[in-house]
Design brief:
The structure is a homodimer.
Chain A lengths: L8 H7 L6 H12 L3 E2 H12 L4 H13 L4 E3 L7 E3 L7 E5 L5 E4 L18 E12 L1 H9 L1
Parallel strand pairs in A: 4-6
Antiparallel strand pairs in A: 1-3, 2-3, 4-5
Helix pairs in contact in A: 2-3, 2-4, 3-4
The structure holds a DNA duplex.
DNA sequence: GTAAAATACCTGACTGTGTCCAAATTTTAA
DNA sequence: TTAAAATTTGGACACAGTCAGGTATTTTAC
């Protein structure tokens, strides 16, 4: 099992005013090792690292980390929530309709982009969530083979 | 109860090769009368119109209508699926984080836009789903009042 | 218009994500 | 070290949506 050093997970937690617990550190590591994973998958990874953890602890850690902006949660249609450690840069996602493969895409417009709708209807917009749906190279190939 | 004539719902069904049933017609009318509604809300509306309908029939009708492109389904994070009759023009949405109010936004770029990611990673993109998150005028006002 | 075939509908049980609660444990501050 | 605060735990629960079958309706062919 590969464990990347996530710029000192404990340090990250402290910076955000969160208590440092083995569970949270393991969750941070799991998200960093396998971005775009579901809570269930991450729970397995966490268990592989620290042995035992409750489902609720993982949900709670993911929830509070997402709230604090340490990680990001995305909820694509027809899929449970996915978590990734790349947060705060408002990047977007490309999802394969066939296999669910998810990859990051930088925003086409610039650094903090996409926050302008053609007509904002008086809303104060704070985030533009963009998901590109399509078919990944592998599934395209499989289709032409069939 | 206001019932708009939805360009002859029966005609719409026929055009898409679907059997014409009272349930489907009522579902189409409900979606047209109250866009951005959940399946539950639409089920109530359908019952108000034709008396009795099963949950599954509404789900099934919504599913097949969305598949055929007659209506559109959106699944915002933290909300059950919403349905709208404006389909096929790839418009986007503006959602209030506080009250959930959802409004349509035309795409800033043009007619069939947004299908270009900065790096498509070899994917064949068929849809760009854009959700602008923010606070609606009413909730902004309520906040400054408090 | 009628009968056969195809399609859709209904009842009821079930699954998968995610949340709520009170008790026990761990972390933090003094 | 000790007490207060925060976190974790286990179990039950809620919600949206799906599956399977038998029955009723619609469509098609005559």
């Amino acid at each position: 099992m590969i464990v990347l050093s996530v710029r000192e997970p404990a340090e990250l937690l402290r910076q955000h005013g969160l208590s440092i617990t083995a569970q949270r550190i393991a969750v941070l590591r799991a998200v960093a090792n396998r971005p775009h994973s579901t809570a269930d998958v991450l729970t397995e990874d966490v268990r592989a690292e620290i042995g035992v953890v409750s489902r609720q602890s993982v949900y709670s850690a993911l929830g509070i980390l997402a709230d604090k902006g340490v990680i990001r949660r995305i909820q694509p249609a027809g899929s449970p929530a996915l978590y990734e450690d790349r947060a705060g840069d408002n990047h977007h996602h490309l999802i394969c309709r066939t296999c669910g493969k998810t990859v990051d895409v930088d925003c086409a417009v610039g650094q903090r982009p996409c926050l302008t709708a053609s007509d904002d209807a008086g809303f104060q917009i704070d985030e533009a969530e963009v998901i590109y749906w399509g078919t990944c190279p592998k599934c395209l190939e499989a289709r032409t083979d069939g």
